[in-house]
Amino acid sequence: MKSEPDTFGITELCNKPNQTEHWDGVRNYQARNMMRDDMKLGDLAFFYHSNCDVPGIVGIMEVVKEGYPDFFAFDPDDKYFDPKSDPEHPRWIMVDVKYVKTLSRTITLKELKFHEELSGLALVRRGNRLSIMPVNKDQWEFILALE
DNA sequence: GCCAACGTTGGC
DNA sequence: GCCAACGTTGGC
Predict the structure, then answer these.
(1) A144 in contact with nucleic chain C (CB within 7 A)
(2) Nearest nucleotide (C1') to alpha carbon of A126
(3) What is the pTM (predicted TM-score) of this model?
(4) CA dihedral in degrees (A40, A68, A7, A101; nearest 10)?
């Protein structure tokens, strides 16, 4: 799961009450569908810092609440307001994630691209701008072993 | 700051 | 349903 550290980095998540925060503001259907359909309680996710000096994986978090309406879309004053979404028919979904750990070092995008074993990773595929992407078990373990 | 790669919008 | 125009993402 990507986030820009200037906006919301892993340190911010760590400092939240209960080290938990809702992953709001996703306004892409593919990413939404993953939060709605695929992400289950207890699932782990990498925290990825994007659009920064050293893009890469910086930590791990856990899904502590499954998909529910992103209520920021209902607030006309919010940056993520979407008039096409309302409480009766919510268009956007978020999950709650809890901080698990910060990696001892950043596993950089450059590294992830370098390893042949990770060539199937959506993150390293050309032009992929999704903010949430799947990681399978083999990829997960391989990445963790790089730490 | 540049720009490639996408996603979305809206006219037709 | 097509596709040009536009906006956004995000690495570099």
Answers:
(1) no
(2) B5
(3) 0.93
(4) -30
Contact A47, A61 (CB under 8 A): yes
**Hey, what are A50's tokens?**
């994007």
User: What's the rounded Cα separation, in Å, for the pair A55 and A31?
Assistant: 19
Closest CA to A134 of A23, A38, A22, A47: A38
User: Cβ neighbours of residue A42 under 8 Å, at least 6 residues apart?
Assistant: A62, A63
Q: Domains along chain A?
A: 2-141 (3.10.590.10)
List the single protein residue with the shortest CA to C1' distance from C8.
A129
pLDDT attached to residue A125:
87
For the segment A53-68, the average pLDDT, to the nearest whole number, is: 96
